[in-house]
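Posting for a labmate who doesn't have an account.
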Amino acid sequence: MRDFVRRMDSATPADRDRAIDALRAIAILGVVLGHWLVTALVVDSGTIHGSSPLQYMPQFTPVSWVFQTLAVFFLVGGQAGAKSYACARARGENHGRWLRTRMARLLRPVVVVLVVWTVAACTMLAFGSDQDTVRALCKLVWSPLWFLVVFAALTAATPLVAKLHPLWPLAVVLITDLYRFGLDAPGGFASVNVVAGWLVPYCLGAAWSWGELHGRRTGWTLLLGGAAATAGLVLWAGYPAAMVGVPGPAISNLDPPTLAVVTFGLAQCGAALLLLGPLRRVLQRPAVWAVVATVNLSAMTIFLWHQTAMIAVTATGLLAGGTLPGLHTVPDAPGWVLARLFWLPVFAVALLICRVAFRGYEQGRPRKQSMVVRKGRSTRSAQARRA
């Protein structure tokens, strides 16, 4: 383990801002833990359907404030995308070549999870599984992919949005919500917020890459201003307090993103900027950096397979021990929450197995290429010795 930590530390360029990687890891792990805590698979008369403890216990709504970290991921994505594109342009690369490189690591693992679950769904149906159960499981795995579709679209548009002021997409979200809720207009128009809502933190990240978000004053302004705006919207404008989707209510802050979740994201971005200094100090420790770097190397694999890990544990528990609390029961009491906390390490072990099995599709072919390079160097060395 010490050798692994030393290798990770020595392989990291001295000028790399490790705090940005830490923010990305925090965002991914926040989404994973959030899904594991607020998503339940309830077994009812042989059928599995999805549920949420927030539907029965709204007092746990603050959990969604902690683990809904998508804005931080888009902030870091905008910073990394704008910086990467600027470096590519400096090297003389065109947009197409740069985009292919950026998309390769994103799309390969997506294709794998789609293929695996398509085969799994067909197999379950062929062996007589209930259609509602198969539909619920597939929805659980595939529905988070909307996030990657939006992220890919914003990445492709980086040259256009890199210098766009975040107030413009924020204004679009505001106008859309006024049109949707104030005028009681059809909800389909609100789908524009799917892009505009996440464009706000992405544009903030791009501005960060240009050096426009430095200073703790900016972080505090975003944190306090975003938090105050979100509180006002929830208390006096009728927006839901939960920052994740909850079965039942007519309005969801995430489907599509509302003004409340966007202002909440601004507060998260401010908190992320304020954490940069402490994170940089902590990440000077090689062991801490090794953990962060490992998560980043498999970020998409972790995101894509964390729901599969939960489903695998749920199915195994059902086959081995019947209906188990915190795993198959209705999430309508605090006891369910305590039982679910017990299952989180089991989910993590299952996710680690998925990571070992599928991480190669995210990392692509660099390992093979590096082996070819090493073999080539060895061959040239042998030739030189013979000469």
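Reply:
Got it, the structure tokens are right above this. The two ends are 41 Å apart (CA to CA).
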